[in-house]
Amino acid sequence: MPPEQIILRPALTEKSEELKYAGKYVFFVAPKANRIEVAEAVEEIYNRDKKKDKDRIKVMKVNMITVHGKGARSGFRTAGRRPDRKKAIVTLAEGQVLEDFGA
Question: Is the dihedral angle over the CA atoms 22, 49, 2, 9 positive or is it negative?
């Protein structure tokens, strides 16, 4: 699977913004993606234009969370569900930063 199909978008919430200071970044990922695929996809996306090794990012750890969709109603009896989502919390090596995260 191409990396753009594994990493869907960054999760831009207050909690994920606080995690950036600890070197952790939160992404919504494909439901069938695993930790290895997510780590390789993040490194490939963010290391595309970087020539020097010191500029390249290195993923140290990936934690995965499946967020189950809540029940939703529209009107009196029309019940439905929001879709399930999968999030990945990516930890980078010490001192590394994603410059264009969420841009």
Answer: positive
Instruction: Report whether 58 contacts 96 (CB < 8 A).
Output: yes
CATH number of the domain where residue 24 is located? 3.30.70.330
CA 44 to chain CA centroid, Å, is: 14
- CA–CA separation, 26 and 71 (whole Å): 24
Could you give the CA distance from residue 5 to residue 51 in angstroms, rounded to a whole number? 24
Question: Could you tell me the two tokens for 38?
Answer: 């997510």
Q: Kindly report, residue by residue over 28-38, the tens digit of the pLDDT.
A: 999 999 999 99
Tell me, yes or no, whether 25 lies in a domain: yes
Calculate the dihedral angle through the C-alpha atoms of 91, 94, 95, 98, rounding to the nearest 10 degrees: -20
**Model pTM?**
0.86
